[in-house]
Q: What sequence folds into this?
């Protein structure tokens, strides 16, 4: 990878101008432009390409990202839900093309506000989405439409609420803090 060609938005690094882009990033940008020309990708400082996708287009875009030979994002490595309070929730997907080591971040603003955030499930496209979507549902309350088994995965079934939401309040009484020294003395 050390000798891979570096390019910029304006041309090769040797021609000057713009931030250097690796050949892998350029392939992702070109593939997105060809397959999904209406999306506007950006490149983060760590060379992850980032694209914002409307929730109503997520299924169509996800299918293209996985199946288009120019893109071939065959592995979903992570899903996160982000609570922006007034703005609502955003779901962030990290996709990887394992054969070519290309990376893409997809961000989706979940419609439905704070009461009912919802994004289409992609478990049928990437099986790894199964537990990731369940975790985002369990901890943040984002519903994934079409998920085959959307139920709690970390919290007890009778847990009320979603504990990673910013407005979540834990009404349990505070627990006594135990320091190592106190524990060691009690065990002796």
A:
């Amino acid at each position: 990878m050390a000798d891979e060609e570096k390019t910029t938005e304006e041309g090769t690094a040797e021609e000057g101008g713009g931030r250097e882009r690796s050949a892998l990033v350029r392939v992702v940008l070109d593939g997105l432009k060809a397959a999904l020309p209406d999306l506007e990708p950006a490149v983060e400082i760590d060379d992850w390409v980032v694209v914002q996708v409307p929730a109503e287009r997520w299924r169509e875009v996800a299918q293209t990202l996985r199946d288009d030979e120019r893109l071939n994002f065959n592995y979903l490595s992570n899903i996160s839900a982000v609570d922006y309070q007034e703005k609502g929730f955003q779901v962030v997907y990290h996709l990887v093309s394992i054969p070519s080591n290309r990376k893409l971040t997809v961000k989706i603003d979940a419609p439905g506000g704070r009461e009912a955030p919802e994004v289409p499930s992609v478990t049928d496209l990437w099986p790894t989405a199964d537990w990731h979507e369940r975790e985002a549902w369990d901890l943040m309350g984002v519903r994934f439409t079409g998920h085959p088994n959307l139920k709690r995965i970390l919290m007890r079934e009778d847990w009320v609420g979603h504990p990673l939401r910013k407005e979540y309040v834990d009404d349990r009484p505070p627990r006594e803090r135990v320091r190592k020294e106190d524990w060691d003395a009690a065990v002796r």
